[in-house]
Task: structure prediction
Amino acid sequence: MANSIKARIWLSSPITKPHVMRVLFTLALLFIAFLTHAQNFEIYVSDAGNFNKPPWQILKFDEDGKNPEVFINTHLNWPQDILFLEASNEVLISNLGSGCIHRHNATTGEFIENFACSIKGPTRIKIGADNLLYVLQWSGNGKVLRYKLDGSFVDEFTSVGVSQSIGLDWDDNGNLYVSSYNGDLVRKFDEDGDDMGVFINSNLAGPTNIWFDSNGDLLVADYDGNAVKRFDSDGKYQGNFISGLSNCEGVAFFPNGNILIGNGKTSSVRLYKSDGTYLKDLVQGGAGNLLTPNAVVLRTIDATGSHEVNLQRPIFSSTIGSTFHISENYSNTIERLSIYNSSGKLVDEIDFVGNRLDAGHLPEGFYLITIQLTDGSMAREKVIVNKQP
Result:
């Protein structure tokens, strides 16, 4: 019976070659998404310690929250956020106490140099769609700053400041939202940084991290409100998304939607389902001498231990055909290619030299290519081998 129903559904629309290709394309994307999400992770946690007094540290855990180790414990002064720059094998740490963002080696944690200083209490740092680093300031004029990834100052992006700003995210239209801890509000700016006014000014008692849900609602970690709170696209309060938290700060997301949240009162990092259901304390209270989690970051690694790059631009200039040319941005940066077919089977490995991949020897179909870069990081690209002109 079930098979006949499926057959009727399939035959209810014309079976054309484009129709079949679309179906196969969808199935292939689903499969490749599964492969892409079958990843390993490391968890990094910023420990604010006694806030403006040490000890301060950046801890590293396995993805199950076990095996804590100190990743960084030098050149810290009330650390606030962690941002990995995989292409250069660096990690940026913002320090509220010193007014500096520092560069460290992403493998060893060793201090390299100052990325930028003379910032009035840098808190959250995040790369925007323009590939610039957005930096929030706890004090001073409170304006959002922008830097190039080499540390060069670009501008004060926002037209007005947000005092004690400590959370930021963008909506689908490119508008920027910034939370104010002492102002108990979230302010909205357009894509040019012009002020669009206060977006939320009620039902908050010390907001920290903010992020948009898939349905367009804004979720706010309310540090002193002991909850993650939900607001709709108009800024109207919809109730608690997660309750029972205390001093929540620092959030990260697994590919399946599960959420990690730092819980300061218990010195732990908690794991929740995507619907807000509590699962467990993934990082147990005090593990690695953790005192005050205030930033949580997931770092992707592949089976060989290489860290995956989130590419700003595609590696191949085209992803359909039998010859795939390397984009100019990645010339001489590729070391090795591993090609998997739509069944997940490794079909070819290539020590790569040159500026194009010739795939004419492969059958037509969908492939996932794992790309080992010369800096030791890795990336993935989806391609369709099509030999027709």
